[in-house]
């Protein structure tokens, strides 16, 4: 290719070093790759809700009208129902195409070229990825050995650098632990914008919404993927001050949430008791799986307040992941520092846990160290 034909020279230079995000594969893709029937797949690699959506969602989608028309650009009805559910005003809600869009919008709003955000690894990779995509800088303040944030180190960074955003995931993905309200208040008292990602809030029952009236620099991100089983429809939302919501409306895409996504999320909120009952069952199964894994021995789980368990592997984590995959059970391995020897296991149905334990028993002698 001649230099005249190479359009890459016109690309934004900071993007050259980035790698594409590798999401999890679909059930069909996994079945084909491992020569399995889709009925054999136990998918515990993406923290999806195994109970799926409310029946009201399927009814709402079947009854959709006027899909030849653009969706409501402000998601007005959905914002109103979210506000009722979250205990805020409608003006404090912004709806996005998944929590990912909300996170990216916040970075675009606050972070300019070369400006910094604080990230606390290991944590959700989108905070750093979106920052780098937008030519920002990431200051990683690693978590402690107990996976709690290192508050004093963060405060030192905030005092020394002109940080624009601090990202805290609670419960944290992939470690499953909560951040304390005391630590959040200390960060908010600096005046610097703090984003609390509450994607897994319903599984922990701990939210920071009560701090919103006192702290206009607090932004809370949530999703319908985990609670409502709508991962495939991409609906998330922000809870923040009316001022920030209005600023974000200036930069968001006008028709960002589809007609189907808005209808499904509205139907979900109309059946919240059913969804919360599913959450209760998943929490119960999380605790049963924790006990079973501790007894079985190959995976040693950390306590979690989310719908997954991070597990230290007593052996080769990649090998264990691959051996489970051959048996139709898919869990998540990370190449991130400090958790390369871990696997993250989503909480599924009771029969999924049983399949997992059976598979671990089957491979135990071939993968166990010591």
From TrEMBL:
Keywords: Amino-acid biosynthesis, Aminotransferase, Coiled coil, Histidine biosynthesis, Pyridoxal phosphate, Transferase. Its cofactor is pyridoxal 5'-phosphate. Residues 40-360 form the Aminotransferase class I/classII large domain. Residues 265-292 form a coiled coil. Pathway: Amino-acid biosynthesis; L-histidine biosynthesis; L-histidine from 5-phospho-alpha-D-ribose 1-diphosphate: step 7/9. Pfam families: Aminotran_1_2 (PF00155). Belongs to the class-II pyridoxal-phosphate-dependent aminotransferase family. Histidinol-phosphate aminotransferase subfamily. Its EC number is 2.6.1.9. It catalyses: L-histidinol phosphate + 2-oxoglutarate = 3-(imidazol-4-yl)-2-oxopropyl phosphate + L-glutamate. GO terms for molecular function: histidinol-phosphate transaminase activity; pyridoxal phosphate binding. It comes from Thermobaculum terrenum (strain ATCC BAA-798 / CCMEE 7001 / YNP1). One of its GO terms (biological process) is L-histidine biosynthetic process. This is Histidinol-phosphate aminotransferase. The keyword Lyase does not apply. The lineage of its organism: Bacteria, Bacillati, Chloroflexota, Chloroflexia, Candidatus Thermobaculales. Homodimer. Transmembrane segments: none annotated. The modification N6-(pyridoxal phosphate)lysine is found at residue 226.
């Amino acid at each position: 290719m001649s230099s005249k034909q190479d359009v890459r020279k016109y690309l934004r230079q900071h993007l050259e070093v980035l790698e594409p995000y590798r999401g999890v594969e679909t059930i069909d893709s996994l079945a084909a790759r491992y020569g399995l029937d889709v009925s054999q797949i136990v998918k515990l690699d993406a923290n999806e809700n195994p109970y799926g959506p409310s029946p009201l969602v399927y009814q709402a989608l079947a009854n959709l009208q006027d899909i030849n028309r653009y969706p409501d650009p402000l998601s007005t009805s959905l914002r109103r129902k979210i506000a009722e559910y979250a205990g805020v005003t409608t003006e404090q809600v912004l709806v996005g195409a998944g929590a990912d869009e909300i996170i990216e919008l916040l970075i675009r709003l606050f972070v300019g070229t070369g400006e910094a955000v604080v990230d606390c690894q290991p944590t959700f990779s989108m905070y750093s990825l979106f920052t780098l995509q937008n030519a920002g800088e990431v200051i990683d303040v690693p978590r402690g050995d107990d996976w709690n944030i290192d508050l004093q180190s963060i405060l030192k960074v905030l005092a020394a650098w002109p940080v624009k955003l601090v990202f805290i995931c609670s419960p944290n993905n992939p470690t499953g632990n909560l951040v304390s309200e005391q630590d959040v208040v200390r960060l908010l008292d600096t005046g610097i914008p703090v984003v609390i990602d509450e994607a897994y809030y319903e599984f922990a029952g701990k939210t920071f919404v009560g701090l919103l009236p006192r702290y206009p620099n607090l932004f809370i991100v949530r999703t319908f993927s985990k609670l409502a089983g709508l991962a495939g429809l991409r609906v998330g939302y922000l809870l923040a001050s009316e001022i920030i919501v209005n600023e974000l409306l200036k930069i968001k895409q006008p028709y960002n949430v589809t007609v189907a996504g808005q209808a499904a999320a509205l139907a979900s909120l109309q059946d919240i008791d059913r969804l919360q009952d599913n959450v209760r069952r998943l929490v119960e199964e999380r605790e049963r799986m924790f006990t079973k894994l501790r007894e079985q021995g190959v995976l040693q789980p950390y306590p979690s307040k989310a719908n997954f368990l991070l597990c230290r592997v007593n052996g080769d984590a990649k090998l264990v992941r691959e051996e489970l995959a051959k048996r139709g059970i898919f869990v998540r391995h990370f190449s991130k520092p400090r958790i390369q020897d871990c696997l993250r296991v989503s909480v599924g149905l009771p029969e999924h846990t049983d399949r997992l334990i059976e598979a671990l028993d089957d491979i135990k002698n071939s993968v166990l160290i010591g």
